Structures
1.
Amino acid sequence: MLVSKGRLTLDRDVGEWVQAATGLSGIRLEPITPEIAVASTRLPWEMHADPADRLIAATSRHLGASLLTIDQLLLDYGAAGHLKVIMADQ
């Protein structure tokens, strides 16, 4: 959606980008389980309303993984202690 709205530019087709990214060492796709879906509706503290970001945050919390992002709302959520975040270079 971000590519189609012009908010994100990739050097190749989205499908090709995903395939290349998931071929990198240490990168894997995680399913959205019912547990994660429910957790995304019960996140502590103020979390913005974007369902995709809520699913990303809930998945990261569920896995105990750090989230690499430039999204200020997710960075603020991490700064409040609810998520492990790493500020991505732009």
Note: The chain has a mean pLDDT of 92.
2.
Amino acid sequence: MLVDPKRNMDAPPPALKIVPTIYPTSPPIDTMLDRFWQAGAELERVIAHVAPPDKPLALLEQLGPSPFPRGGFPLIGFLATTYDKVGRYALERADDSEPYAADRG
């Protein structure tokens, strides 16, 4: 490993150098623990339209075959059923005519 003889060894390595950014910095998390899980006003501007996927189990297909030995419990079948039920639940709760509202129960 090559070491730059001019580099101050007490200074952080160049990869950890703090660089200026155009984005505002977040306050330290310990100063906002009491409101950490609150979404804030920005969430009200988010519009989400829920629709069924073109190919229902595409995500599971992308995962490929199970890496676990086939046992008495059909893991992939369970995941497919769960994925389908969660998707149906989301579609039933969504009303595509209005944007998602954070206050929906």
Note: Residues 75-93 form the longest helix (19 residues).
